[in-house]
Amino acid sequence: MKNLEGSSPSTQRVSVLGQADVNRAITRIAHEIIERNRGLEGVVIIGLQRGGVWLADRLVAAINHIEGESAHPLVTGYLDVSLFRDDISLRPVTPLSVTDIPIDLDGSKVVLVDDVLFTGRTVRAALDALNQYGRPASVQLAVMIDRGHRELPIRPDYVGKNLPTGRDEDVHVTSEAVTLERRVTQ
Amino acid sequence: MKHLRSIEELGVEGIVRILSLSEHMAQVNQRPVPKVPALIGRTVVSLFFEDSTRTRISFETAAKRLSADTMTFSVSTSSVNKGESLRDTIETVSAMGVAAFVVRHKTSGIPWQLSQWTDACIINAGDGWHQHPTQALLDTYTVMSTLGRTPSATCLAGLRIAIVGDVRHSRVARSNVQAFTALGAQVVLVAPRTLLPPGVEDWPVEISSSLDEVIGDVDVLYMLRMQRERMNEALVPHLGEYSQRFGLDERRATLLRDTALVMHPGPMNRGVEMVVDPATLPGNVITRQVANGVSVRMAVLFDVLGGSEATTGVQT
C-alpha cells in the first residue's frame, strides 16, 4: 500500500487494488461463476445501478471470453433499486437510472453484481425488486469489495477482495482501481 | 420540497428535478409489476371540493403505485354538509396522521391557507383560476418527451407554443405559461379580448386574436377547455361564433404543420373548441398527456414525501 499524490490534507488515500489486480479478480470471479453453476445454462447477470453496471459488463465479457459466446448466450440486465430502499426517509434518494431486465426470471440463476458490499441494504432492496420479474431458482451475489459492517444476514458468493474498513472510511471502486479514503481528524 | 402549490414556487430547478424523476417513474410504469414500495406507510388524502375525474384518479393511481395509502374525502358525503369549517375539517383529518393532502378548491390561494393549519405536505390540484401545477408539469413532460428531448433548464428552447381559448378562467393557462416560458419556449396566447385576464400585458407572452394567423407556425397547439360553468357574464356572444373563430375544425387542422403537437387538458368540449376529431390528427398527444400524468404525479409525490419521515401514527 502506498499513499497517492493529490490527496487533500484532510483525507488520506490508500491504493487497495491496481488495474492488474482488478482484471485478475474479474477473471477469477468469471471462472467461479461458471464452475459454481456448472456452465451457463439459465444464468442471468444483473448489475445494480450504478456501481455494479460496469462490473457486470466486464464479468459478462470475461465469461464469454472463457466459454465462447455461442454455447449459451448470457443474459445481462440492470436493476435500479432506489425506490425499494428501506432508508428513503433517512437520506436523499435520486432514482434516475435505468432498470432493464429483458426476460422473465422464473427458474433462472441470477447473479447480482455490485461494486461494494457494505450494510447489505442495497442487496435486500434488490431481492425485493427481483420478485417483480419472476421467481429465480437461485440468487447469487458477486462484489468487487466486501468491506464488512453488515446490518442484515447477507453474504457474498463471489468476492474480489475482502477489505476490513472503518465506518469513517470511503471505498472508491472504478474499472481501473480500488482506493480507500480515510478522513483524518486534525 | 415540502409543498407543491405553484410553478413559480417550484422554480426552474424544481421543474427540471420533477421532469427527471418523471422519466424514472415512466420507466417504473412499464415494468411487469408497476408498483414500488417507496412511500409505504405514508397516507395521502385527496380533498376535492370541486368536480374532477382524471386528476383525482391520476393522483390516486400515482400514490398507489408508490405503495402509499390513499383516502378520498368527498365533500358531498362529509361533515362539510353539516357546516364544519374548512379549518376544522383539515385539522380533524390531519390528526389521523396524514402525510400529504392533494387539494382542489374553487378559491384561489386555498393551498397556502391550508399549509398554515397542518404539518402535512400540500399538493395543489387546482385552486380557482390560479394554479394547476401538476397539469403544467405533465404538459411540459409530454412536449419534452414526445420531441425526444431530455430534462434541462432549456429543454423547450426554440419552440413556439400557442395556448388557445379561455385564458381568463384557466388555471391551466396560468401554470403552463409559467412552466413553458421558464424552460425557454415562446408562448402566444390566442383568445378574444374578453377571455384574456386583466394584467396579461405583463405576462412574458405574445397575444393574438386570430387563430388562423398563428396556427401555421406553431410547434404545439394547446387548446383550452371553454369553461361554460364559469361563464356567468356574457364574455362571448355565442358559443357557435366562438367555435368558428377559435375552434379547431377540419380546415384549420390542415393549416397545422405535420410535426405540430395538439394538446388539451380535458375534459374536451367536442363541437366547441375541438370540432375536428383529434384522433385523426397526426400530432394528437391528448391521451399521452393523461398517461404521463400518472408518472409525473408519482414524481411529485415522491419529491414531496420521499425525504420526509414516515407519518404512521396519530399525531398528538
3D architecture notes:
The complex is a heterodimer of chains A (186) and B (316). Chain A is α/β, with parallel strands linked by helices. Chain A has a single domain (2-183), classed as Rossmann fold. Chain A has helices spanning 19-36, 51-67, 121-131; strands at 11-17, 43-48, 75-79, 109-117, 138-146, 158-162, 169-173, 178-183. In chain A, strands 3-2-4-5-6 form a five-stranded parallel beta sheet. A three-stranded antiparallel beta sheet of chain A has the order 1-8-7. In chain A, helix 2 links the parallel strand 2 and strand 3 (75-79). The two termini of chain A are 23 Å apart. With 316 residues, chain B is of the alpha/beta class. Helix content of chain B is 36%, strand content 14%. Chain B is built from ten helices and nine strands. Chain B has a five-stranded parallel beta sheet with strand order 7-6-5-8-9. In chain B, strands 2-1-3-4 form a four-stranded parallel beta sheet. Chain B is globular and about 55 Å long. The chains are: A alpha/beta (186), B alpha/beta (316). Chain A binds chain B through residues 80, 83-85, 88-89, 92-99, 104, 128-129, 132-133, and chain B through 20-21, 23-24, 27-28, 31-33, 35-39, 66, 302, 306-310.
